[in-house]
Structure prediction request, 578 residues.
Amino acid sequence: MRIAPDKVMGLEEAVTRFVPDGAHLSIGGFTCNRNPMAAVYEIIRQRKRGFHLYAHSNGQGVDELVGAGCVARIEIAYAGTGRFAPTCIRFRKAVESGGIQFEDYSNYQMTLRFLAGAMGVPFLPTRSGLGTDILARWGFSEAMRAADPRLPKKKLVVLENPFGDWAETERVVLVPAIRPDVTLLHVQKAAPDGTCRIAGLAFADVEQARAARHVVVTCEELVGPEDLRDEPERNQIPGVVVDAVVHVPYGAYPTACYRHYDYDPVFLSDYRTAATDEGRWAEYLERWVFALRDQTARIAAVGPERLSAIQADPRTGYATGLKR
Amino acid sequence: MEYTRRELMTLAAARKIRDGEIVFCGTGISMLAAMAAKHIYAPNSVIIFETGAVDSRLEEIPLAVGDPRVMYGASSCTGLADAFALMQNPTTGRHVVGILGAAQIDRFGNLNSTAIGEYLHPKVRFSGSGGACDVASFVDRTILFMQHERRKFVKRVDYLTSPGWLDGADGRRRAGLPGGGPEAVITDLAVMAFDPESREMFLEAWYPGGSPQEVLAHMEFSVEVSRARELEPPSPRELKILREIVDPQRLILG
Prediction:
């Protein structure tokens, strides 16, 4: 949250200012769509460490943050990027090798947890998860929770319906609120004061932004201060909740950005190959993150041929007929 | 006409979708089944995705539920909060059939898509629930996809990610879950169903050329086979639509 007419800055500065080591972090997007990838790469480039990451199905960005060693703990519903990685490879390796502490939820539970944070209530109820191990098995122990004021004392709590059988519901699962230190989003359009206009599915971006103490937005188009004011009903995030606005064309690449470009199946397939092997993974990070100074260098390295293949068709919003 | 097992799997699931139903689909073969149903048997079915797309037209097959292709021609596109509320809300939720996959299943249709081995120190880690636990908790009818392997049809799932009939009979009601539960498991060898009283899995049909013995040989637990028959092979029309309209690039059919 920050009130100022102009929050435009560079990506390096935004990450330096708002994403400290050890931050409780969430990123926007879903699997292979609209992940704030340029911000993720800048975080990796700055060699940030010790994050506590909150994810529903945030996909590619989560896997790269985990793979680069930036994440100490993760609360997550789903780690996959569709056909490209039914289970995110670096996430899987980190869990299987004990390199990360983790706890599992469902997508709706995580969405409601962000919503609770956004609303300023300690929890919200749902009927999801009764009878499952998501309820029964904790990833973070009671002792760990007791020692850390940033963790709720319990994972999930079952409550008998205090209104009797109202709404034909016997009991509900209470999910604890999440208040990230910072949420990172990539959107199609933003104004200097942080007003955001997302095209197409918003996933849980709006709840994640409103739940966070700080929000960093990268955008395909940085528009003038008045440009999003004519039709405010088309804007999902008001400027007041946003701290930094960064103009980053192709800021979601290699994931998709509806009405701008598709996901890049070539990059994501190469990523899968690289992620599977430790040597190739180190080479990947060197070549695609550390060796590139910034997003401009990164997009130049991808090259016009790949970018041209994934340009969105104005009729569909994705690259119709793309070889996948 | 020649066909692959994957094609028959898709059609076996699609045949179970009724006209006028809301079809929740996840990633992969469940999308094929939903699209095939809409083009062949259930033209008025409505496809929804947990990402928030409702009544998608799906001109091209999405490779993930977050794929921008799920937005094409949709009635509305919002986000996760709305999509799950539509399923949790009994007015709309009672009309939803969910199609789900997993890594392990038990005789009551409980699913594991989280981990093999001990949860905190797993031998193999999978993606986790995503929206599967939510859908399995909320909706009246689910159709499950599974490769027919002994290590997948297990006596006890290593981690119960998504509720089936829990411990059978009225287990779901006792746990406080609304609605019904799994109706069928579609595998590459057979179609399994669940007894209306005990909620235990039984063999409904085996694939042409197979046998009940072959099905049982690929399971860690035994199921009743007395009600079983041979499954009808795909018709030329079913195959034509599946191959020419649903997945002409064979992105998921393989």
